[in-house]
Amino acid sequence: MNLETPDTEAPRRARGRPRKTADERDDGNRRRELIEGAARLFRQQGFAATTTRDIAAAVGMQSGSPFYHFESKEALLAAVMLEGMQGALRRQVAALSLLAEDAAASERFRALVRNHFDVLLGPDSDFIPVMLYEWRSIDAAQRGEVNRLKDEYEAAWSPVLQALHDQGRLAADPALARLMIFGALNWSAQWYVPPSGRSAKARGRASLDELTASALQLFLKEPR
Question: Which residues touch 154 (CB under 8 Å, ≥6 apart)?
Answer without folding.
Answer: 178, 182
